[in-house]
């Protein structure tokens, strides 16, 4: 359990941590940037606050995981000297979450608290030393500006009479900042404020078309929109003031960001334009993934703004989902990602560069005549370098979330492959440290460190990473180390190679044997990357005494598009064979694993696989299974929200649905084989996999007399996000699996207020 007192570290202990960080995280010569100040000063420069009070845990437990500070991406100021970021911390003693906005001195790693008011978020720079952030108050939002060097010196730059979910800023000069924020709009395009909504006498919801509901809420007529305006500095007060906001999507039938997970990566702003992605309004979003790249031109900046109607950029033969629109620094070009196939949310992202003044002049990079492309990776984000000569991309590769660079030739006829700049961990976000430098500020994590910020020069021949700030001191505050993490490759179905991460207990002894926790990821087009997670964190299971193996079977991302595509109409086929062979590999090669004490756990597609394995021979080799939000009857996916997903993966769609395509791999056919003890978890707000699936599993297990439990959260969706709920989730899961492998229970469930409903 984390204590609330500030830890006073000696220089010797810091030196030890630094040495560990040097040799474990960056064994290829990467170095740590300590700056002029001592590490003790860097860590403990502020009075008690959540990040400063983060102290070393004797053991990594669910409480430590869930109460540890969670940092957002670091955003540098124009000079590249300071960065701003958010930190949220949950206290199980106070049963409350607190949020801080902090600045980081990039040169010496010192952190300073700027604000810890309630309901603050989304900080960004409006000058070298002024930061804007959002503060919600009831149904409205206040734009607050604070001085990075004078804590508490703030003023209000403007208000919006509605909830604002996020904001993007573009500094034009010392006196003007372009603003684009996200807020709901009514069907007529006006700002939607919940407090103006008249509550109807009836709770009826009437629909003439799908979508009816999406993810965890019923769809309403109100849509996300991008609202544009200007912050202008007043001459007398030298303070910024927000001008009129305009909905640039009004009368277009477009929605951006794209729900449910579209954020700032769905739009960008320059002085003369806004670019964004949005679902095609002529297609039903329940059965289509097609979204397009659009440009809105802005004239009369800053005093008499006028906006063009959105201009759609359509590339022939490219009909899938699009994301990551971004302008070059001069605003003359834009770049975006788009998939080729409509209806397939995990198709490969292709890379496009647009001439903003002539959108018909759009180039696909790395293109080949056969349509497959030169690069067999699917980038997740893309942006221009500060000098506009290089594209910087993030993409998964062999279980690692890497940063890549791609040089742009004069004619943009790029034929060389992107070059990886990082080789370990997960790059979650990156920002330029200024127009005159090729240095980037990276926001990263890995399997033992929940957040570290680092500097990298993307033009260097052999780029090295300089870590500016590691929140957990490379995992040492969690009592975790890089020595616990390794990886294996084994031969899967049809002789292809399958990758898996292996995480051992921190107390690992090679002379002993440990039970196996076999973790199966969701998606199914997903991956176990070398990244931190607060939902399925392998180290939590390892610290209970398990050796954790997290394989990436057929369908996983980051191993080439064919490997991802090969799960189509093969849900219980090739991936299951991969898992069977992986289990055998562990038994043959990992002598420290006691295969007679093995458990398996999975969520979403991983939950489906628990149900599939339950009826197959592999299921008999486990002492217990945990199924979180899994599918039992595949034809029941007709009740899911995004119908394009089963239509693609299972091979056909209504009204021409072929029974064998949806039924062949359905676990319910094998319930007569179910004998392995099972914990079933399913939530009320999971509209992707309705709760009837989980209830059916539990009913079957109980009817068959199989040891089983059912856990449900009425206020959670496909995930369990609330900290108190997540602690219960971890406790019930760990108690269940531990009881079958001779490990002690984690915690008394009654101490958390959990009542067994018998």
Sheet of most strands: 8 strands, mixed
- Examine the coordinates and then state which fold CATH places here, giving the name of the CATH topology of the largest domain: Neuraminidase
Distance between the termini: 32 Å
Summarize model confidence as the mean pLDDT: 91
List the helices and strands and how they pair.
Layout: H1 11-25, E1 31-32, H2 39-43, H3 62-67, E2 70-71, E3 75-76, E4 82-91, E5 96-105, E6 111-115, E7 120-125, E8 130-137, E9 140-147, E10 150-160, E11 164-171, E12 176-185, E13 213-214, E14 217-218, E15 223-233, E16 240-242, E17 246-247, E18 267-269, E19 273-279, E20 291-299, E21 306-307, E22 311-313, E23 322-327, E24 333-339, E25 349-355, E26 362-365, E27 379-384, E28 390-397, E29 400-407, E30 419-420, E31 426-432, E32 439-445, E33 452-457, E34 465-470, E35 485-491, E36 497-503, E37 514-520, H4 538-542, E38 547-552, H5 561-565, H6 574-589, E39 593-603, H7 605-614, E40 624-628, H8 644-650, H9 659-663, E41 678-681, H10 692-703, E42 708-711, H11 723-738
Please give a structural write-up:
The chain is of the alpha+beta class and about 750 residues long. The chain folds into 2 domains: about 130-195 and about 205-475, TolB, C-terminal domain (Neuraminidase), CATH 2.120.10.30; about 480-745, Rossmann fold, CATH 3.40.50.1820. About 15% of the residues lie in helices and about 35% in strands. The chain has 11 helices and 42 strands. It starts with 10 loop residues before the first helix and ends in a 20-residue tail after the last helix. The relative contact order is 0.08.
